[in-house]
Amino acid sequence: MVTLSYVDPGQASIAGFKHHLQAYDALLRTLGDFHFLYISNTRAHFARATTCFSSLVQQPLQVDVSVEILRYFRLRQAWETKQYGTLDSNDVEWLQDATKRFRGGEVRCLL
After folding, report:
1. How far apart are CA 5 and CA 53, in angstroms?
2. Which of 6, 29, 37, 63 has the greatest number of C-beta atoms within 10 Å?
3. What's the gap between Cα 72 and its chain centre?
């Protein structure tokens, strides 16, 4: 059994951890079974790191893009209408990542 790890550098967000998982996504999917250690000197980001890990690594190989597009437009609308109180830090980070992912052309909701 392969054991992989990530050492949290103690930054204010888990963006580095998310980037680490995305960089190794193909390897993790190829392995199938593995152990993963999230190493930190504090428990501050443990819950968010667990959620991030579950959403990125345990998602099905074929993601339903329509669900992601709907989430993107919901979060983008909240951001653009300055409803920041409805967004948590995970939403903001996800929106930043999704904006980069959907950047190929102008993406607009015409509803």
Report:
1. 12
2. 6
3. 13
Looking up tokens 């790191």 gives 49
Residue reference for tokens 């929106």: 95
In angstroms, the CA 111 to CA 108 distance is 9
Tell me the per-residue pLDDT of 61-109, one tens digit each, with 9 for 90 and over: 445 567 778 888 899 999 999 999 999 888 888 888 888 776 654 444 4
CA distance 2 to 80: 44
Q: Name the nearest CA neighbour of 93 among 9, 8, 22.
A: 22
Rounded to an integer, what distance in angstroms lies between the CA atom of residue 30 and that of residue 81? 41
Amino acid at 96: Q
Partners of residue 34 on adjacent β-strands: 2
Strand partners, 2: 34
Q: Where are the alpha helices (DSSP H) in the chain?
A: 15-23, 25-31, 46-57, 65-80, 89-101
- Cα–Cα dist 111/99, whole Å: 19
